[in-house]
MmyB-like transcription regulator ligand binding domain-containing protein
Amino acid sequence: MRLEGAPGHRLVAYYAEPGTHEHGALVLLDMAAHELSTNGAAPNSRPSATTPDGAVSPSP
């Protein structure tokens, strides 16, 4: 989707079924983006486990 008033920019939405590897990857991307936007630095830890509902739990 092109964005009016923002030449050269597009909005892209991704979806993955919960519980799939793709969903886990999207959750990781979301967590990294949130970490970067709140701290302004790279994430300190990597999520390592996926719960049965597809959520990713961070490693200790």
